[in-house]
Structures are given as C-alpha cells and as structure tokens.
Amino acid sequence: MIVVTGAAGFIASALVTRLNAANFNEIVVVDNFTNERKLLNLSGKHLQQYVDREEFFPWLDEHHADVEFIFHLGARTDTTETNRDLLNILNLEYSKQMWQACCQYQLPMVYASSAATYGSGTLGYSDDDALLPLLRPLNPYGDSKNDFDNWAVQQPEKPFFWAGLKFFNVYGPNEYHKGRMASVILHAFRQITETGSMTLFRSHNPDYADGEQQRDFVYVKDVVDVCMFLMQTRRHSGIYNLGTGEARTFLDLTLSTFAALDRPADIHFRDTPEDIRDTYQYFTQADMSKLRGIGYERPFTRLEDGINDYVRQYLVPGAYY
Length: 321
Hints:
Elements: E1 2-5, H1 10-21, E2 27-31, H2 36-39, E3 49-52, H3 56-63, E4 69-72, H4 84-105, E5 109-114, H5 140-154, E6 162-167, E7 169-171, H6 184-195, E8 198-201, E9 214-215, E10 217-219, H7 220-233, E11 238-242, E12 248-249, H8 250-260, E13 267-270, H9 274-277, H10 289-293, H11 303-315
Parallel strand pairs: 1-2, 1-4, 2-3, 4-5, 5-6, 6-11, 7-10, 8-13
Antiparallel strand pairs: 9-12
Helix pairs in contact: 1-7, 4-5, 6-8, 8-11
C-alpha cells in the first residue's frame, strides 16, 4: 500500500491520479474529509481505504507491514494563516510524528515543504542544507515549513529514504476548492470568462513594472512526476527545490490564459492588498541543480503549454485530473 496524506487536496489528489495511471491502486488516502468540494478530487480514483488524519497513526501501528511508501503532503497551506498554534500542530508536530513513525517502521517518505521558506529571497533560492538555518520566511506558514526542514536535517535518526520538496508556484487541475490560495491561472480564467478582462496586482517596488513581478510557476503534472521519480529511485535523501528553474512574469501568465481562451487581452491593475503587501515576493526562481544532479532528467512544461492544457482540458469543461 502507498499512503498519501492531504489526499483530497490539490497536489496530493493529482499524485493519486498519477499513481493510478502507473497501476498503483492500493492507495490509502489520509485527510480530514470534511470539505465535500475537495472530495470531488478523489472521485473515480482506485483507492484502498480512507483514513481520517486523527486516526492515522493508530492505523499505521496496525498496518505498517503492508505500507510500501508514504507521501506526506497534508498541511495547513494558507499563507495568510496567523494562528501559529494551528500551524505548529498541523505542519510541524504532525510531520515530526510522521518522521518518527517512518523511522520506527523503516518506511520511506516524501514530504511537502515550500518555497515560502525562502522569504524575501535575499539569500537566493538554493536548496543547500547549509542555508536552512539562515532563511527567514515572511509569514507563519513559511516559518512552520522551515522549522520542520531544519528539524529534519538535524535528526540523528532518519528514514532510510526521505525527501522534502520545496514546492514553488504550483498550478493545475484539482485546485478548484482553494479559494484565495488558488493559482493566478484559475483566478484569471474565472475573471476573464465572467468579465472579459483580468486585474493584476500593481507593483509597489520601483524595480518592477506593473505585471512584471516574476514567479517560478510549475505545472502540477510535473510535480507528481518528480514524486514518482523519488519513489521509484529511493536514493539521495535530502531537501529539493521543485519549480522549473525559470521565472516568468504575471503578464506572461495572463496573456497565455487569454490565448488559451481565444480572447483578446484586456488587463488592468489594482493595489496589492495591504495585508500581504509587506510580505509580497517580487521574484522567485528555483535552483534546480540539486534535483538534476541526482538524475532527474525530464523537462518541465513551458508555462504557455501548461496553461493551454490546464485551461482547455480542465477549466473549460470543468474536469478533474
């Protein structure tokens, strides 16, 4: 059996789809399963069992001999969350318990970290372990992810294989439930289909023109391909960036969304909300040399191609991945 936590969420449900495509059908999905809209992400999947996240560790104590691999992707992912106690419970302590269980039962694991750990990016975007204690995230969510990364690399006892993945700006099908935290592509699609135009955040940094803010946007199908690679190789434990290695502008993204919809571009700007303005990142770009260095050779999807696939194959028909 393969365990996937946070399984009804965006990236994890895409991973379940990819596992099924590779004929892995004995999948144990772990989540709180209270969000009915998220549950649509698992509709039609070949699954072994649903386990509530509060019941998972007793379940694992009983069934660990049958578990082959754990993907721990469950987390509180709202970057505007200010409840540090909640983030500490869900993102730090639960992950510590997962790590310790994998050590106890000799289970390999991949877990979700985040590019939010890099903060303003003043130290760059290298996934070198030596930089981990120097990173200063810009929000409590990033702190929770960075705290676990630092804790993990310092542990004298580790799973025989483990990998933490610093997800950059992931987009793609099955993020319909994410609200404000959904990718800009989904917001653009909705605005364009409803109004014929798209409004982006204005730049409040003199080094960047409006719409020229840059992110490393990575298609969720590429993300799950990397997860599969790590499960299949099980070598070279460590923390890895997971982006494309190429920063693109929000104008690039928006123009590609208009093109995928066969509509003329009509773009406007508004001030960045004050609650995120001071912590807004103007540039992110993953250094992908570490993952490439362990043998991952597949190319990452060009932004234009990923948006075209996402919009035409999923957003327009309202399909799930």
